[in-house]
Amino acid sequence: MSFNLIEKLTSFSKSIGDLLSSNHFEIPDNQREYRWSHDELEKIWDDLILTIEGDIESNSTNQMGHFLGAIVVIGNNDSDAISRWKIIDGQQRLTTITILMSCMLHYIEKLSEKRDQNRFHNLVSNCIKSAQLDDYTARIKLNRENIFYKQLIVDSEDKAEKNKYLTAAYDAKSEVQENLVNASNFFYKAIDEYIKKIPEQSEAYDIKIKNIIEALTRNFYILVVRTNNLWMAYRLFETLNERGLELSQADLIKNIILQHAKQTGSQSLENVNSLWSSLIDYYEDQPSKPLDLPQIIQFSYAYRHQNKKRVKKEQIFDFIAEDLRRANVEAVEFAREFTKDASNWRSFLLGEIKGWDQEVQVSQQAILGPLWKSHCAPFIMAAIDKYAENTDELKSCIRLTENYLFRQGLICKDSVSALQEFFTEAARTLKNNNDLEKVIDFFVKKSPDESFKEQFCIARVSSANQGIYIIKKIEKYKKNEILNNHSLEYILPKKPGPEWGGIEKSDTFKLNINKIGNLLLVEPEINRQMRNKAIRQKLSEDTNYSYKQSDYFLCKELIEKSEQWLDNGIWSFSSIQRRQDYIAEKYANIVWPMKA
């Protein structure tokens, strides 16, 4: 029997507007439920704003749009409300797009012209749901919490409607419901920030809202790969998610650089080939790969050659090609710079830097671990490039990176775009100045102590590693030593015993247990023995396993100040907040200073 590829597999590209408005989807039970968090939402919003700036506001005649990647679906040629396409890869992206579109309906109703209100409402609404004879049906059917999704995202078209439904039906213990609500709230906040205080029903307001809709429905596009063969669908999913796809853009950049090197002579071509081989060696020799190869090239190029605040990875090829065409930069220079920064980045990952010591290693582990944001890389590259032989200055730059990531990334939750703008500009400032004080002043200006302290008071951790990092930093500040024999202790346990009086039933329980004011480090054996016990037992002097027996400073401080923080002997949500306010006031700006 012959193999007919066309029968097995078809692919086509579509704008998001065309794709959603002409098809129906469902997410199979064996796929992940809706899981996107703040970082993924921020990335897609950032891509939207960059698309608006690059394609629409610039009046560009050569619009690039934004490629959202590929999705894999199982189904026949056509999909409808009865015969939906099953999404094997791409469900998080498409679901998120419908949430953003649902939020947009609130703002469309405030356009100045009724005709525009109707036109854009129909355009966006048709991407979220389709009209049937008896009702509307959702374009996407979730595998978990579908009723909640339909009521909140599909049927509730106004912010007030959503809030009314949430008051009646929201279950804070459902992770999927929480993720859907968080996504909706994120986009409302992002849109409000984008339009700022522009009056509704004004020309400026209309332009802003229409730009979002145009970019979202027309300039966002996606590659759809469809098959009716389940086995092939999952093989496609595995293949499309392999790392090799990321290298294709690097190959394009290599080819354009080689092409221009060839024009300047055989020696130039030989140099570029040699340098590029070294670049690949440095990339492959990393112990881990927090940056892919196109990102290394992106960050190197951005701080060395671009004056724009932000440069997207997808744009790098076009920028480099244009610079080569205009002879702004020689091909060999590009290859040399990319190779040098790849080498510097590898040195940072491996700790192969002059003057490397335990203090720098702790900062490095924090940067690459609980604080990691890829956009800090250009500043680290620039710092190693400038201060490879100046140990003290380089240490200062690495400490600044760690502290800024903690202050603005983890605590203040700056957007991906804001962090990218900051670290790229900081790298340029470092590259162009011999006085490190000017760079430090730039950090200080962008991270004021008072606003950091205010945000610290309300901060929560999203992982145990973040909690360990924070408490460990304070412990090291107080005892001037690095402690490794520890477990993260939740004063109010994640699974409280009966002595806690059912506190876990509170709607705000999950929010409070992850607050910094509820965290300690204790020795592992003490942590195991205390488990979910009541606060009076954890503070007791009459047991071998309590905070009293711990060598950690913050345990002793908790005992000392327990009378101030407890509510009639109870460790309450208010107790957690009082301790967190105290930690913010006493430690935040001292432990994570902006002065290097």
UniProtKB/TrEMBL annotation:
<feature type="domain" description="GmrSD restriction endonucleases N-terminal">
    <location>
        <begin position="16"/>
        <end position="257"/>
    </location>
</feature>
<dbReference type="InterPro" id="IPR011089">
    <property type="entry name" value="GmrSD_C"/>
</dbReference>
<feature type="domain" description="GmrSD restriction endonucleases C-terminal">
    <location>
        <begin position="448"/>
        <end position="585"/>
    </location>
</feature>
<dbReference type="InterPro" id="IPR004919">
    <property type="entry name" value="GmrSD_N"/>
</dbReference>
<dbReference type="Pfam" id="PF03235">
    <property type="entry name" value="GmrSD_N"/>
</dbReference>
<protein>
    <submittedName>
        <fullName>Uncharacterized conserved protein, contains ParB-like and HNH nuclease domains</fullName>
    </submittedName>
</protein>
<dbReference type="Pfam" id="PF07510">
    <property type="entry name" value="GmrSD_C"/>
</dbReference>
